[in-house]
Design goal:
The protein has 366 residues and is an alpha+beta fold. A hairpin with a 2-residue loop joins β9 and β10. α4 runs parallel beside α5, α5 packs antiparallel against α6 and α8 packs across α9. The relative contact order is 0.12.
Length: 366
């Protein structure tokens, strides 16, 4: 019905380094496609269709990103016998949107795609963490939220969560003490308590107290987690947060890192001795807020140099100037952090990028 001779679905692996073909019985086997350095990867990175001639010549190969909302699931490759006009490309976009919805829906009750997307087994801790996180990207006309976790196959205590309800966006980035399964279990309890408080519409200090109490009661022996719990008013741009022993939020405005906010941090969750202090700033349209764990800025090169806050902010600014969508910015950032450590991640790393009133939703939502 589309006029295409063939169609192949590729899903992104957990690290977003490869696009893995959904193989069909009786059809020729398809090799994985690198996200960097391929036409299919270009469609995934730019979140827009790309075209290339087929290997045998003649016709057109159209690559269309698979988007569930603003979440990048992969790409679909469509082979046409001739040129592709705008009407045909628009039909292909609708087709890709349907494919993405089917893939995400099936992923909720089947292991087929989850197994396909991994190049090696996930640790038990990583299985838990990937089930906890919301979609990696959300976009609307007032806010874009995108997150990333590393190491994808062995992530332990780092995690993030968010929810966008009418005029309010709630966000949290958390780093549980320790590594592996014990850290993942602590993070799971913390996320559960956070969601319970958030859905009761409690103020941030009360949510912090609830998470603190759950960790203290369920994980004795001075176990704790550092975190930032934030709330953004999507109408006014007022950002409020409580900081529980965690790296403070960074704000990038007009291509420069803003001075650090003077609001002091409270003690980590599980060790608090009083109400957490609430901090607030007013964002300007286009501001980008970075919530992250110390595995990002404390990533150390073989020469002992930290990745650092300035390098983090500069990377985001340069990605914006290059026209990279927010999810691509974080994908490339995680690769840069890994390269800074000569390919060996020394600690879990988690980050959330929030953009307020950017006007870039058309680029994200096709």
């Amino acid at each position: 019905m589309l006029g295409a001779l063939e169609a192949v679905v590729y899903l992104a692996d957990y690290e977003q380094h490869r696009l893995v073909a959904v193989q069909d019985e009786g059809a020729p086997r398809r090799a994985d496609i690198p996200v960097d350095g391929s036409e299919g990867g270009l469609a995934f990175r730019r979140v827009e269709p790309t075209r290339s001639p087929p290997p045998a010549g003649g016709g057109t190969r159209l690559w269309v990103p698979l988007l569930d909302g603003a979440e990048r699931a992969g790409v679909v490759e469509l082979l046409y016998p001739g040129e592709v006009d705008e009407a045909t490309e628009e039909e292909a976009r609708h087709f890709a949107s349907l494919l993405a919805e089917l893939a995400v829906t099936r992923d909720a009750y089947s292991d087929v795609f989850a197994k396909l997307r991994r190049s090696r087994p996930l640790s038990v801790a990583a299985e838990i963490q990937w089930e906890l996180v919301p979609p990696l990207t959300f976009g609307s006309d007032r806010i874009v939220v995108t997150g990333a976790l590393e190491p994808s196959y062995d992530i332990g205590g780092d995690t993030f969560d968010y929810a966008v309800n009418e005029n309010v966006a709630d966000l949290m980035v958390l780093d549980a003490v320790g590594h592996g399964l014990p850290a993942a279990l602590l993070a799971t309890a913390a996320i559960g308590a956070y969601r319970a408080g958030r859905r009761q519409e409690l103020p941030l200090p009360a949510i912090s107290a609830l998470v603190d109490r759950v960790i203290a009661e369920q994980f004795p022996g001075s176990k704790f987690a550092t975190a930032v719990l934030a709330r953004l008013d999507l109408e006014s741009g007022r950002l409020t947060w409580v900081n529980a022993g965690h790296p403070a939020p960074l704000v990038v405005r007009d291509s420069s890192l803003q001075p650090p906010h003077p609001c002091p941090s409270s003690r980590p969750l599980g060790l608090q001795d009083g109400p957490a202090r609430e901090c607030r700033i007013d964002l300007q349209p286009g501001d980008r807020v970075l919530l992250y764990t110390d595995g990002i800025v404390e990533a150390r090169s073989p020469e002992g140099e930290f990745f650092g806050e300035e390098r983090l902010a500069d990377f985001v600014v340069r990605a914006e100037a290059a026209g990279d969508p927010p999810p691509e910015t974080l994908r490339r950032l995680m690769r840069s952090v890994l390269e800074h450590q000569a390919g060996r991640l020394q600690d879990d790393a988690s980050i959330v990028l929030v953009e307020w009133r950017t006007g870039r939703e058309d680029q994200l939502l096709l």
